Automatic annotation (TrEMBL):
Origin superkingdom: Bacteria
InterPro entries: Glutathione-S-Trfase_C-like, Glutathione-S-Trfase_C_sf, Glutathione_S-Trfase, Glutathione_S-Trfase_N, GST_C, Thioredoxin-like_sf
Protein name, UniProt field: Glutathione S-transferase
Every GST N-terminal domain range: 1-88
All copies of domain GST C-terminal, residue ranges: 94-217
Length: 219
């Protein structure tokens, strides 16, 4: 069996998956997608499945050449954690911790990510310095929520690294890298330390953020 990950280096959803690949010690090939041009394989898959081409997407290629495709980052990570050794990053289903993890995943998708988009790009991708003040304030409220959780806790759930941390940290990294670190983390020391503890490791810099040549678009 072989794994092929269609990915885009800076995409936070893809970073989630590459973190999990590293943590589980899973070898994989990367197809570095030319974002919005896309490879022919991804275009054809999307067309066949009535979906938009998007990354990340994991192809699981069996010995006989048959393929299973998983397109969503959280689903890919649940698959990887469940199918490689013992489950380490997902609390047992039915527990309060599992529920908390799901709540953070939904919060990241519904509350944090849309706010980062507004902060980074503006409404309808029109950056407006006036509105940016309100967007920054709203994003600070989201980060404050993380700060409160991380005050007295080392991780978001269960005092250990779970899928929740793996899902959210790439988005905090994205905030840190927007407009050369304009977002002020002084009031959010726990969030900053929690993020940096992961993204400043050698494995993160060298494996997760490894540069791959862009796959030729349309091929
Ligand atoms: N819910 C998806 C979101 C993936 C996603 O939005 N990826 C972005 C790249 S960061 C993308 O492919 N955008 C292209 C598009 O939506 O057209 C996941 O968790 O995997």
């Amino acid at each position: 069996m072989k794994y092929i990950l269609h990915s885009y280096r800076r995409c936070p959803f893809c970073i989630r998956v590459r973190i999990m690949m590293h943590l589980k010690g899973v070898p994989y090939e990367v197809v570095e997608e030319p974002l919005r041009a896309w490879t022919k394989w991804l275009q054809e898959w999307a067309e066949k499945n009535g979906e938009r081409p998007r990354v990340p997407l994991l192809r699981i290629v069996a010995e006989d050449g048959s393929e299973t495709v998983i397109p969503e980052s959280d689903d890919i990570n649940i698959f990887l954690d469940t199918h490689h050794g013992s489950r380490e990053y997902i609390p047992d289903e039915g527990t309060g911790e599992y529920q908390e993890m799901q709540t953070w995943l939904a919060w990241c998708a519904d509350e944090l990510k849309p706010m980062i988009d507004l902060y980074k790009y503006g409404e309808q991708l029109q950056f407006d310095p006036e509105k940016h003040i309100a967007h920054t304030a709203a994003l600070r409220q989201r980060v404050e929520k993380l700060e409160l959780q991380l005050t007295g806790h080392s991780f978001l759930v269960d005092e250990r690294l779970t899928l929740a941390d793996i899902a959210v940290i790439p988005f905090i990294r994205q905030i840190m890298r927007t407009r050369e670190g304009e977002f002020d983390f002084t009031d959010f020391p726990k969030v900053e330390a929690w993020t940096r503890a992961l993204i400043e490791t050698e494995w993160f810099k060298e494996e997760v953020m490894k540069k791959y040549p862009l796959a030729p678009e349309g091929e």
